[in-house]
Amino acid sequence: MYSPKEESARQTHKNWLAKRQAHLKQEDPRMPVLEAQGILGPIPGDDRNLWPVSERINPLVVSVPASAPVTLKNGESITFFLDNTELYRRPIEALEDLQFSIEPGLLGSGKPYELVYEHSDGLGNTMPSIPFVLDVDSQAPNRGETGEPAVLPDEVGSDGLTLEYLENHASLDITVPRSSDILAGDTITISWVPVVARSFRQDFAPITSKVVTYPDFIGVHDPVVHIDSELIKDLPQGKIGIFYRYIDRAGNMGQFSNVTVLQVNLTPAPGNLLAPKVLLAEGDGIDRADAQLGVEVEIPEPVYDNPQDYDEIEVIWEGTAVAAVLLDTLPMYIPIDWSTLSANGALDKRSFKVSYNVVRGALSTPSPELDVTVDFTVAGPEPDPSTPGPINSALPAIVVKSRELSPVDNVLGNADKDLDATAQLASNPFAPGDILRLYWGDLRPHVAEFEIVTTGTAIEFVIPWDVIQRGGYNDQLPVYYSTWNEVNEQGSEHIAVDVRIVDITGLPDVEFPDRFAPPAGPTPVPVINCCSLPWNGININIPFDPDKMGVGDDVIIKWQAYEDRAGTSPIDSTYHEFEPIPLVAGNQYTNIPFVIPYANLVEPVITVGSGRVTYTLIKANGQRGEHSALTIITRVAGAGLCSESFPGVCNAFVDDRSGSTA
Predict the structure, then answer these.
(1) Could you tell me if 412 and 418 are in contact, meaning their C-beta atoms sit under 8 angstroms apart?
(2) N or C: which end of the chain has fewer CB within 10 A?
């Protein structure tokens, strides 16, 4: 405690100091600091004068403050300087002379600038103003670097954001890592962005923000932004990306931060889930054929309680989680690939559980379980475990044998025609009871079967001739065999067998362009009559079949005339085989036209008889095919026979060569 005398002395000293300080201030003769329009002044935690980014498209207007001791039209002048560079000098004639606009280009280097004006009175005395330091800050917050992800409350980060959490907390508190250059006055914005395949700029519109305070600036803890719980209830739900962004007091924008993923689930949890179904698992369970066709887990209808469009279905197959898929209209079918089917064994038989989860954010609701059995056992060598088949490259190759004097494997020659063929395996790695099945071309089912009785015995299949005929001609007929263990079938590598001893069948019918065409429609057997002008020869056309004919093949045409309509009584000396017709590329467009000569071949059919056209296709590789067609020939007209001289009357258009009248 001070005595009254001491206290009085202390107060007297304080008063003297105050007067002395005021006197010292008055001793500074400089002009008062200039004023700048649109400038952000110092605040606690940031003592800079800042030129906002939003103002930098316009000139900066600076002026002498009203407190400056200047007079108009008294010989006084004013000069403005920027970093000691004179910008403007003029006498003070009007108030407008006390301000100046600085073009933005002079303030573009992103550094502090010193702005000063000098006042000169009419007597030659000049005094500068107190400098005004303007900071043109162009540096993006955090030095332009992307910030680390925001931090969620532990409970929200692990379980997602639920309605229960919002009802028990006034806000969701987002902890934002401090920027490397944080200052008071910085703004932190929070964006709430649904996580989709592609986000657009407008999706990052902020939902809330926080201004960094002086305590935030001088503190050591990261700032916290509070998102009101009631606001969140109206925001999108599902998988949400939380982004923050620093914007400094001048308006420079930082990068959006790295994302913090938040699962938002404000609806009741799914309920009353039904057990899954696996249709192929019914009965004897899933085998390799099922795996080849494709195994699917069915999520049955009706849909569970409280479904949401953003729910995901995650199948759990034998303990393995299958990639979740978005909920769709039930029933849903989710494929299970071979890698999942065989994850716990590709060659055995076993039973296990299958279920699914409804995934909503970080929460997962399980369904009841289904018992499933798989049997992937095989007969014979173990197949490649990476595929369910049907080909097992470990099976020994099959060979089709020939009876030719110089036989070539997998080629049937003329010596094999009309005879059964054999196919052999080079080795027998099978066990007693295994069944082998031979497949010939496209014929189904298998055409031969062989059961293993003794290990190591020779294996030979017999292919009957009628099977070879049904398999048809093919210079690369696919042939393979399979093994069968009453559950799974696996096939050998396919071989190509040259089967050219089978005649070509299914050749196109011969056409008769000039055949009789009654109003009721074509006759079952083509009719060549007087109006067909047979004395000009019988025109025929063989359609070109691109599947059976080709350039380089030959077509041989044969003719036989008959006394009767049925083609059973041949007329002597009317059989003729014409020279081969080599097929060329043009036949693909013109077909194969030909004329059967009248004299000696057609003319002997005096009244009503018939003629047969037979053509043989001879492939370049030697295979043959034959096809024939019968046509009725009639020249009976009036009291005798029509002829070129007496063609008769035709009711249809007849070639001008006929000489007849229509």
Answers:
(1) no
(2) N
Q: What percent of the chain has pLDDT over 70?
A: 93
C-alpha distances out from residue 134 to 54, 79, 603, Å: 15, 18, 121
Write down the architecture of domain 35-135 according to CATH.
Sandwich (2.60)
Please give the pLDDT value at position 8. Answer: 52
Query: Is the separation of the CB atoms in 38 and 51 below 8 Å?
Result: yes
Identify the CA nearest to 470 among candidates 442, 437, 438, 494: 442
Burial of 59 (0-12, 13-18, 19+ CB in 10 A): middle
- Which top CATH class is 527-658? mainly beta
The CATH class that applies to domain 141-265 reads mainly beta
pLDDT single digits (tens) 311-342: 999 999 999 999 999 999 999 999 999 999 99
| Burial bucket for residue 394 (CB in 10 Å: 0-12, 13-18, 19+) | middle
Planar angle of CA 558, 562, 568, nearest 5 degrees: 100
DSSP 438-484: EEETT-SS-SEEEE--STT---EEEE-HHHHHHH--EEEEEEEEEEE
Phi-psi region of 342 (alpha: psi -120 to 50; beta: other; left: phi over 0): alpha
pLDDT band at 504 (very low <50, low <70, confident <90, very high): confident
Residue 272 pLDDT grade (very low, low, confident, very high; cuts 50, 70, 90): very high
Give residue 620's pLDDT. 85
Delimit the CATH 2.60.40.3760 region(s) of the chain: 141-265
Beta bridge partners of 191: 206, 243
Average pLDDT over residues 472-484: 93
Cβ-based neighbours of 220, under 8 Å, separated by 6 or more: none
- Which regions of 123-163 does DSSP assign to beta strands (E)? 126-128, 132-135, 161-162
Residue ranges matching CATH 2.60.40.10 in the chain: 35-135
Residues 6+ apart with CB under 8 A from 252: 53, 137, 138, 139, 140, 141
pLDDT in tens, 133-173: 999 999 999 999 999 999 999 989 988 898 889 999 999 99
User: What CATH number has the domain spanning 398-499?
Assistant: 2.60.40
CB 530 within 8 A of CB 645: no
**Amino acid at residue number 503:** D
pTM comes to 0.50
**In whole angstroms, what is the distance from residue 362 CA to residue 154 CA?**
13
CATH of 279-375, one of 2.60.40, 3.10.620, 2.40.360, 3.30.350: 2.60.40
